[in-house]
Amino acid sequence: MSELSKDRVESIVNEFMDPHLELTLAEAGVVNSIAVNGDEVAVSLTLPYPAAKYQVTLQKELQAAIVQGTGHDATQVALTADTKIIAHSVQQGVKRLEKVKNIIAVASGKGGVGKSTTSVNLALALAAEGATVGLLDADIYGPSQPRMMGLSGQPESSDGKTIEPMVNYGVQTMSIGFLIEEDTPMVWRGPMVTQALEQLLNDTNWKDLDYLFIDLPPGTGDTQLTLAQKVPVSGAVIVTTPQDIALLDARKGLKMFEKVAVPILGIVENMSTHICSSCGHEESIFGSGGGSRMAEESNVTLLGALPLEMSIREQADSGKPTVVADPDSRTSEIYRSIARKAAARLSKQAKDYSASFPKIVIQNT
Predict the structure, then answer these.
(1) Measured between alpha carbons, how far is 37 from 349 in angstroms, rounded to an integer?
(2) How many Cα atoms are found within 13 Å in the side-chain-facing hemisphere of 89?
(3) Minimal CA–CA distance to 16: which of 24, 6, 5?
(4) Domain-embedded: residue 314
(5) CATH at residue 199
(6) DSSP state of 178
(7) pLDDT at 356
């Protein structure tokens, strides 16, 4: 059998479609080098989104593409895929946090659609993919992330002014729930809530985060307005169920972010279908196709659809969400795929160039 043609291999690799970026590797500009030595191909990439768990799949898919494109069955591909995550632009007039590259808001117009469960699993998914990730629980009235993250106790403060994030499963977390008893109601008016959100965000010593997920409360009220006006958000993910009522409210949340020029990274359809644990019958309890229709009508991406499973609820309630409780499950892979797609979509947004501009100081002489 003849040796591999380097030109042909380079063409196949460059034309390979990245499923998360929805661009060819050449269009994405991620190919560093391609070397061919007999039956062996060495490919070096630098991806703009975290993909540690995806690299094995990517290597196999590249190898299969080269075998199919060349007819050279003995081809062996060695893949080196580094990651470079950069900061992206935020709303005009809002200053980016010094130790947080990108903030992703996770929102829904309606309560009860699984937004907090989605938030925590997406944060854990990107951490599993190799990113440095934080999670801010912005639901002041009903904080749920301390329990979902399996965290208890109060955060420490070394200077009496700032607080250290609580850490579990490699994710830095902050919530008002760490500062009060779990059954204590927050009987606060709007201004107190927005001030608390700002303090939790700005007074936490985040440790060089690639991504900070903000788990928003449902609706489009004070917290969302504060987020839009004062928090440097790089992108938003909208969570909904296929139910028509949930979709109506989700559209309101989507329109809110559009009005304040925050890019929508995509829609997550939660509780898409239910598979009976006894007989295996699959049923669309909340309807079907709602998320995809909303995505198409709003010209945004459907990042993925998650099933309605008892285990997802049980694992979150027990403080060990699905991505860490059952990392090899199909559901965990869906969460990781959604997280990679969201990060990939973010990587295509405008970059933040503020750090490269010189500081101009005017002095009287």
Answers:
(1) 37
(2) 11
(3) 24
(4) yes
(5) 3.40.50.300
(6) G
(7) 47
Whether residue 76 is found in the same domain as residue 111: no
Q: Are the CB atoms for 21 and 348 separated by under 8 Å?
A: yes
Q: What is the pLDDT of residue 289?
A: 74
How many domains, the chain? Answer: 2
| For the ranges 268-277, 291-300, 311-320, the one whose mean pLDDT is highest | 311-320
Q: What is the CATH number of the domain that holds 23?
A: 3.30.300.130
Q: How far apart are CA 113 and CA 344, in angstroms?
A: 24
Domain that holds residue 331: 100-347
* Average pLDDT in the chain: 88
pTM of the model: 0.90
Ramachandran class of 40: left when φ > 0, alpha when ψ lies in -120 to 50, beta otherwise: beta
Q: Residue 219: which pLDDT band, with cuts at 50, 70 and 90?
A: confident
Q: Are residues 140 and 76 in the same domain?
A: no
Alpha carbons within 13 A on the beta-carbon side of 348 = 16
Q: Residue 225: name the closest of 198, 250, 204, 246 by CA.
A: 198
Residue 168: inside a domain: yes
Q: What is the rounded CA–CA span in Å between residue 252 and residue 259?
A: 11
**Lookup result for tokens 């196999």:** 60
Bridge partners of 109?
none
User: Does one domain contain both 46 and 167?
Assistant: no
Tokens, residue 180: 């009060």
157-213, pLDDT tens digit by residue? 888 889 999 999 999 999 998 988 777 776 667 678 888 888 999 999 999 999 999
Beta bridge partners of 37: 40
**Dihedral sign, CA of 93, 97, 103, 105?**
negative
Is residue 90 situated within a structural domain? no
Query: Considering the domain boundaries, does residue 323 fall inside one?
Result: yes
